[in-house]
Amino acid sequence: MPHTVRIGSGLGFYGDSWEPVAASIERGGVQYIASDHLAELTLAILQKDRQRDVALGYARDVVPMLMRLWPLMHGRGVKLVCNAGGLNPAGAAQALRVAFATKGWKTRIAVVSGDDVLPRLAADRAGATFAHLFSGAPLAAVRERLVFANAYLGARPIVDALRQGADIVLTGRVADAALSLAPLVHEFGWALEDAATPAALNRLAQGLAVGHLLECSGQGSGGNFGSLGAWKAIPDLAHIGYPIAEVSEDGSAVITKPPGTGGRVNFDTLRQQLLYEVHDPHAYLSPDVVLDMSTIELDDLGGDRVRVHGATGRTRPAALKVVAGFHDGHRAEVTWGFSWPDAWPKAQAAVAMVRAQLADRRVPHEELFVEYPGLGSAHGALAPAPADPDALNEVWVRLVLRTREKAAADGFGRLFPWMGLSGPAYTCGFHGLHNTGELLGIWPTLIAREDVEHQIQIEIIET
Question: Looking at residues 48-77, what average pLDDT do you find?
Fold first, then answer.
């Protein structure tokens, strides 16, 4: 049994950079890369891909990423665990197999499926079942418009895939931190489903904390650091190194980064990442364990090394979280600019003209969203009004129409061109007159664990 396991952070979202991952493989002494390609809304993006081509539906960056990284990984025995399979893990594996064949590369790819629960949600006619996790609304309101529904799986299928000798594990929707927790369970032989003692639960909680610190690529090593003024002291973000966890058998870990890379790993950067996207630090839910972060200790050792220990764990939840998507109408977007003099009042007048046209023409819509980039779009209603509107050199106003009818979205851009000569003076220009698209709504809910886990499958593909 190993004394320590070194896991490097991979991507933090679909489209992230994999060059820092290469540094972790070449100089970080890692045994695993845990790569998270699925942000909370990524499945909606992948669904639109799949609507255009049924062979798609996966995070396509996995192919160029591995074409770059596999030669580095193979010689060092580094394994990759990633959720780039998205809505179509088998499609991702097939694309990788074709790409590897062109190079004559050999590997074992494990494909994890079973997170797709759309048939279960679509078939259930009980109105109160699968209520919206935040509003409590019944699924019946959107059931007929569902297009995907995926449960967040835990570490078990990844552990099983690694035990079958996989070099690359491709999953669909799994809990982000499970990508790192699974290699630890596999390497150390930790109890998972039957973890019942405080010591066993605390080990899993520590592993979950480590995974949470690694799941956002450079954000765990000083990227996106928001401390007032302190962000300026983060060195060389252009060559940032992604975090690496050196984990001991008891779950305690030292978080660091590859030598010779930019960024910073210290008490402040890690505590910011630790609380990122956490609703309740006393009960951070995952499919494998409930983590109490309040007992975690961060010991800054200096030199981009922080020891993480003391996490407390409780028994895993009985239900799994589901993210479902449904057709939610269409949107159309136009941005309209005005220059001095009177830029601000002219923008207000322009919005009023658009609202009048929507009413006069009885255009069906649920919302006209209005914001002013550079003035209030970042903070919304919290942004103060311009102190001296007459002093503004230019104002841009962004208008987004949300409607259930495609024809209304397609026609939104036609409300604007005539106002170039017949509206407020000194128009800077229009952008996005034909910028329309389908909207996918997100429906978070819960599903009984036993309704999902019996259908999980692992397929090993030899290239």
Answer: 96
Provide DSSP, 319-373: EEEEEEEEEEEEEEEEEEEEESSSHHHHHHHHHHHHHHHHHHTT---SEEEEE-T
Reply yes or no on whether the pLDDT at 125 is more than 90: no
| Confidence grade of residue 382 (pLDDT, cut at 50, 70, 90) | confident
Q: Which two tokens stand for residue 404?
A: 């259930």
Q: What pLDDT shows up at residue 124?
A: 72
Position 105 confidence tier, pLDDT thresholds 50, 70, 90: very high
Alpha carbon distance 434, 437 (integer Å): 9
Mean per-residue pLDDT for 229-242?
95
The angle subtended at Cα 35 by Cα 31 and Cα 40, nearest 5°, is: 155
Across 372-411, the runs of DSSP E, i.e. the strands, are 394-403
Handedness of CA 346, 349, 351, 353 (dihedral sign): negative
User: Above 90 in pLDDT, residue 126?
Assistant: no
Burial 16-29 (b: 16+ CB within 10 A, else e): bebebbbbbbeebb
Residues 6+ apart with CB under 8 A from 125: 140
Q: Is pTM, for the whole model, over 0.70?
A: yes
pLDDT > 80? residue 217: yes
Q: Which CATH architecture has domain 329-439?
A: 2-Layer Sandwich (3.30)
Closest CA to 388 of 335, 336, 338, 341: 341
What is the 8-class DSSP label of residue 390?
A: G
Q: Would you call 256 helix, strand, or coil by DSSP?
A: strand
* CA dihedral of 203, 205, 206, 208, whole degrees rounded to 10: 130
What lies within 8 Å, CB to CB, of 406 at 6+ separation is 330, 436
Measured distance CA(214)–CA(173) in Å, rounded: 17
**Which tens digits make up the pLDDT trace of 238-285?**
999 999 999 999 999 999 999 999 999 999 999 999 999 999 999 999
pLDDT of residue 226: 87
Exposed, middle or buried, 450 (CB in 10 Å: 0-12/13-18/19+)?
A: exposed
Determine the pLDDT at residue 127: 52
Domain ranges of the chain: 4-115+152-317, 329-439
From the CB of residue 106, how many other CB atoms can be counted at a distance below 10 Å?
Answer: 11
Q: Among all chains, which residue has been given the structure tokens 């972060």?
A: 293
Among 277, 441, 323, 329, smallest CA distance to 87 is for 323
